[in-house]
Design a protein that fits this description.
The complex is a heterodimer of chains A (369) and B (163).
Chain A (H helix, E strand, L loop, with lengths): L13 H4 L1 E4 L2 E4 L2 H19 L12 E13 L4 E16 L4 E11 L3 E15 L2 E9 L4 H5 L14 H4 L6 E12 L4 E8 L16 E8 L5 E12 L14 E13 L3 E13 L4 E13 L4 E11 L13 E14 L2 E12 L3 E13 L1
Antiparallel strand pairs in A: 1-2, 3-4, 3-18, 4-5, 5-6, 6-7, 7-8, 8-9, 9-10, 10-11, 11-12, 12-13, 13-14, 14-15, 15-16, 16-17, 17-18
Chain B lengths: L1 H38 L3 E5 L7 E2 L1 H8 L13 E5 L4 H9 L5 H14 L6 E3 L2 H10 L3 E6 H4 L6 E2 L6
Classes of the chains: A mainly beta (369), B alpha/beta (163).
């Protein structure tokens, strides 16, 4: 199968590129910041223009698909539902010797069928294991977001932890990153990302001149072990969209996260915690979200447990604070039919401040090919 | 007296039987040695003239084949060539090099490509195809059976031709 894939860029003068006319407001992004991003785009294009021709069809684009079929039974409502999860299409291609492309598009049902562009990344490998990434990616803040993305086939449980469902960390960021991995004996890795940040109603346009900065580091001192930490900083302008509605005053946001992951031939262990501090000129709030996962691998069968805890700050002005605390306990079993198919059955007990306890039995068949 | 003679003759018989057994075992081991080793799945690393060094340590080799290295020290892109996991050599590669089952190895690469951290290896059905590909592709490195290597040049692993 031969496919043609065209990536197009529009080069505009710096000033024109970053002057965005949005109905009644005109936002001018600082030229200094724009220059960095635009210069990087230009260099990437230049390297593509002078790259040796790989030959059409000789370096094929790869397309992979990940799908999940899901059922759940809610004991509280005594209701059994048949459903399906996301259909995830992953495309990868080599554009030149040092340049590659990755795109991840998801088709899902959420009040109607929707298409979500999850990742669009043009990667330039400038030296050794050091890369520049341009585009939209999963914010490199924690292990789950950096490793599993939307692939249910790789998720150790049927769903993401509460950290994600309550949007404690910004899942996506559009911007430019520097990334390095497997450096030195400790296999050190880093990610530094400058992005649009939170608060915009559009995925394509930043609502203010403030940029988010994500910095993440990790080491892999032993086979299967990864230890990492990250910090995310952003400033939301007044009027920015928050999880509560719109920001009345400018908000300073800082999220500090840490993780330990160990996946061996028998033990699977993953623990992550994120502490978010949101401040405006009248209050400050700390919100904490953590989870711990433990699985024991017996060939193809993996019994597991997961425990999530969310504690939303009393004075919280960014996150949804309808539920001040959420507790989730998961007990399940995963059966790896093959590398392309996994079956998971789990019992999930959750307790929320507003709705009280609930029990759900989840079934998931996740495939990838 | 007769009992003593019978005891001695029994001891002698036992001694002869033991020594014969040991001799036969040593002979069999010597005869089967090189063939048995090859059948056991001894593997060799081959590389393109551009890119890979002439010798590597086992840990360096594992890092390269796990997709943890993007470029060789001369700047050439690392390209991994493996036998399909359905082949004997591919299965042996999964177990000896990756310490994984064939299914685990496939999932490992599927995951790595999905994360955007590495490019999938080129998988081959025959060792001759793999050897041709490595010869023609700058930066390529691959795994074949020691028998298929013959007198050909390989990357030494901790000073050894095979592992």
């Amino acid at each position: 199968m031969k496919m043609e894939f065209i990536v197009s860029f529009t080069i505009l003068p710096f000033r024109e590129l970053f002057e965005i006319n949005r109905e009644n407001e005109r936002v001018m992004v600082e030229i200094s910041r724009g220059t960095v991003i635009n210069t990087a785009s230009f260099l990437l294009l230049l390297s593509l223009a002078f790259a040796p021709d790989l030959g059409y069809g000789q370096e094929p684009m790869s397309i992979q698909s990940f799908v999940a079929v899901e059922n759940n039974y809610d004991t509280r409502t005594d209701n059994l539902s048949f459903g399906f999860g996301e259909q995830d299409l992953l495309m990868t291609a080599d554009l030149a010797d040092k340049m590659s492309f990755l795109g991840e598009t998801v088709f899902r049902y959420s009040s109607g069928f929707q298409i979500g562009v999850e990742r669009i990344i043009v990667k330039y490998n400038y030296k050794g294991n050091h890369n520049i990434l341009l585009g939209r990616r999963h914010t490199p803040l924690n292990y789950w977001n950096d490793i599993y993305h939307h692939g249910r086939l790789f998720f150790p449980t049927t769903s993401r932890p509460t950290t994600f469902t309550y949007h404690i960390i910004p899942i996506h960021t559009n911007g430019i990153s520097l990334q390095g991995h497997n450096l030195g004996k400790m296999k050190f890795g880093y990610d530094v990302m400058l992005g649009n940040g939170l608060g915009s109603s559009s995925e394509m346009v930043d609502n203010d001149k403030n940029k988010s900065i994500s910095t993440a580091i990790h080491v892999k001192p032993a086979d299967g072990l990864r230890i990492g930490a990250s910090i995310y900083k952003d400033k939301l302008a007044s009027g920015a969209i928050t999880r509560q509605g719109t920001a009345v005053r400018p908000i300073d946001q800082r999220i500090i996260s840490a993780h330990v992951a160990y996946f061996s031939s028998s033990i699977e262990f993953l623990a992550e915690t994120s502490m978010a501090t949101n401040k405006d000129d009248s209050a400050s709030a700390n919100t904490m979200a953590s989870y711990i996962y433990l699985g024991y691998k017996m060939d193809k069968l993996i019994p597991y447990i997961r425990y999530d805890y969310l504690d939303v700050g009393k004075e919280e002005m960014y996150y949804n604070n309808t539920d001040r605390y959420v507790f989730v306990a998961v007990l399940g079993v995963r059966y790896e039919v093959s590398y392309q198919a996994v079956v998971k059955v789990e019992f999930m007990y959750s307790e929320k401040e507003t709705t009280g306890p609930s029990d759900v039995v989840n079934f998931q068949l996740a495939i990838g090919f | 007296m007769k009992v003593l003679e019978t005891d001695n003759s029994n001891k002698l018989m036992l001694l002869v039987a033991r020594r014969s057994f040991v001799m036969c075992f040593v002979l069999l081991a010597l005869l089967a040695g090189p063939y048995g080793h090859a059948d056991d799945g001894a593997l060799a690393i081959i590389s393109n003239s551009k890119g890979a060094p002439e010798e590597m340590s086992i840990s360096e080799m594992k890092d390269v084949f796990k997709g943890e290295r993007q470029r060789w020290s001369d700047g050439t892109k690392v390209v991994i060539a493996l036998m399909k996991t359905t082949t004997t050599i591919g299965n042996s590669t999964a177990q000896k090099l990756y310490k994984m089952s064939d299914q685990e190895l496939n999932k490992y690469w599927l995951g790595l490509v999905f994360q955007g951290k590495a490019k999938a290896p080129k998988f081959f059905s025959s060792e001759s195809e793999l050897k041709d590909y490595v010869t023609e592709t700058p930066g390529a490195i691959g795994v074949i059976g020691l028998i298929s290597l013959g007198e050909g040049k390989s990357v030494l692993i901790d000073g050894n031709k095979s592992f």
